[in-house]
Amino acid sequence: MKTTRLRGAAMALALTFALAGHADAAPASRASLEALFQLMHAQTMIDSVYDAMQKATSQMMAQDASKRGESVARQQIEAKGRDDAMALVRSEFNWSVMESEMIDAYQQNFTEEEVTAMINFYATPAGQATITKLPQLMQTVMASTQAHMQALMPRIRAISEKANADAAAADSAR
Predict the structure, then answer these.
(1) Which of 49, 89, 146, 165 is most exposed, with the fewest beta carbons within 10 Å of its own?
(2) For the chain, what are the domain ranges?
(3) 85 contact partners, CB below 8 Å, separation of at least 6
(4) Contact between residue 46 and residue 95 where contact means Cβ atoms under 8 Å apart
């Protein structure tokens, strides 16, 4: 019993020192984060994410609209609306807007030592391969997610229709 308490106290003390050491660590500098983001090809990665999102969303919505029997004209109008919305997002929320927010977020969450370790990794061939292959990885994951969501759409639609019917019934019962 005494040994268990002693171990618990030792672990608590070790955790306190570990956390205190991390709290005293210097936050990442702006210069190191800019270097990290450059190695990560952050601007290109953001563009790739938007491209993948737009492609996946367009495919999913087109398939769903086709299953609902919507006209080609309606599908084209909806597609243009989605494209216009994505163009707005891209113009207003691009890397030049995001960079300072990302620097703040990284400074709140990473120490200079941690960012230096990331820089060292991303400067290696394996790190650059990770960055290069990440957009394709994301597309693969999005395609898988899209397939799952497409399979769920009829059930989601049924839940929504039931909720609407129940709400209408509740309104008429007043």
Answers:
(1) 165
(2) 25-159
(3) none
(4) yes
Cα(122)–Cα(33) distance, rounded to whole angstroms?
A: 12
Q: CA–CA separation, 108 vs 92, rounded Å?
A: 24
Task: Say how far apart CA 97 and CA 101 lie, in whole Å.
Answer: 8
Which tokens in the block code for residue 76?
């084209």
**Nearest of 109, 53, 116 to residue 82 by alpha carbon:** 53
For residue 104, give the 3-state DSSP assignment: helix
First-residue to last-residue Cα distance in the chain? 65
Mean pLDDT of the chain: 85
The SS3 call for residue 68 is coil
For 9-55, the pLDDT digits (tens) are 555 445 454 444 455 689 999 999 999 999 999 988 888 788 888 88
Six-digit token string for 172? 């008429």
Among residues 24, 37, 149, 169, the alpha carbon closest in space to that of 98 is found at 37
Q: How far apart are CA 100 and CA 22, in angstroms?
A: 23
For residue range 125-143, list pLDDT tens digits in order. Answer: 999 999 989 878 888 998 8
Using one digit for the tens of pLDDT, what is the confidence trace for 62-76? 888 888 888 889 888
